[in-house]
Amino acid sequence: MVRTWKQALFIVQPDTLLRWHRLGFRLFWRQKSKPKSTQAKVSAETMALIKDMAKNNRLWGAERIRGELLKLGIRVCKRTIQNYPRDAQRAC
Q1: How many CB atoms lie under 10 A from the CB of residue 29?
Q2: Which helix (H) or strand (E) holds 81?
């Protein structure tokens, strides 16, 4: 039985306490930085449509494709569109 807080300090050495703190900190941030989901945010049909638009209209940029998709009622980020046509242009 420990009577005072000073006696409790002898049970756990400072190095052990620091190691536990670092380990807890590492585990916390590992959990925090994990992706929320691994599923694609864009449906397969939309990805196919983006690739098809990029392949058939080589002069269209991401903004133009995004505008055409908005006319169809599909909301997609410009950055997402910039990522997909790269694969379509390499395939040609």
Answers
A1: 10
A2: helix 78-83
Q: Helix axis angle, 44-56 relative to 62-71, nearest 10°?
A: 130
State the DSSP code for 37: -
Asked whether 52 and 82 are in contact (CB, 8 A), the reply is no
What is the phi-psi region of residue 73: left when phi exceeds 0, alpha when psi lies from -120 to 50, beta otherwise? left
Residue 54 in contact with residue 88, Cβ under 8 Å? yes
pLDDT one-digit tens code per residue, 37-50: 766 678 889 989 99
pTM above 0.85, yes or no: no
What local confidence, expressed as pLDDT, does residue 8 receive? 67
Nearest to 63 by CA among 73, 50, 52: 50
Cβ-defined contacts of 23-31 (< 8 Å, 24+): none
Question: How many residues can be counted in the chain?
Answer: 92
